[in-house]
Amino acid sequence: MYKEYTILTHADYENGIKERKLLGLKCRACTRITCPPMPVCQWCGSRDLERTELSGEGELITFTVIRVPPEGFEAEVPYIPCLVRTKEGPSVVGRLDHDAERATQDLLGKPVKLNGSFTKGDKFSGGPHTCPVFGVRE
Ligand SMILES: [Zn+2]
Q: For the chain, first and last CA: distance in Å?
């Protein structure tokens, strides 16, 4: 009999972000959280996963300010792609909602929280994609 392995698709993940929910998978084998979703636990490889919602809170690990945009993103510059380590453990890629002129190394390690989403596609990707947008918590 067919077994449903995909408890949380990438489309589900993106739809969650649009509702300001960071969705992931909780592993029944090792109890850790996988995010963004994938078919197996990112920590132990188990397929015994259940859907969960993360807090949306985390720590800013790194970022860069894009001033010379890739084709299709000319209207977006400057923008700040970032890597956030969530409170629950996994790291997710998103954008940082911050004044690019004031984005310095002092931001590294700051607490951040999911505060929106950004959806866009370009001619190189398979249609629009949604990524989380994080704001620095003061
Ligand atoms: Zn696991």
A: 52
